[in-house]
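Appendix B. One record, verbatim.
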Amino acid sequence: MTVVVKQVADEPIILCTIYEPVDMSVDPQKNRDLSNTIARKFTVPVYRIIDFTHFELTFEQLVAGLSEDIRFSESNIVMLIVGRDELVKFQTDVMAQQQYGGREAHYFTSVDDALAFARQRIQG
């Protein structure tokens, strides 16, 4: 499996790390399903960090994975997208559009920054 999904300690934070190669017929669904299983444990917002720093996203992969992932993700998930290129940033912007679910999504260049953001929001 090229996608590793885990809950961070007992916090409402999910860390999804994506590695090459990605099987677009299986990996996006596994990522979403494992994330949803964790998110269902909580009634509060759950911060899902998706780390693209080990993977070079193509436009075709963005389109194929994005619409299904957003539509079928639990409604309490807030997307925190980590990457270092414009396509990953673009993906974050697209997530907020209504046709892709109008999700709250934020872009970061490091997992540490995304974790800090999530923890700040959790603490209020």
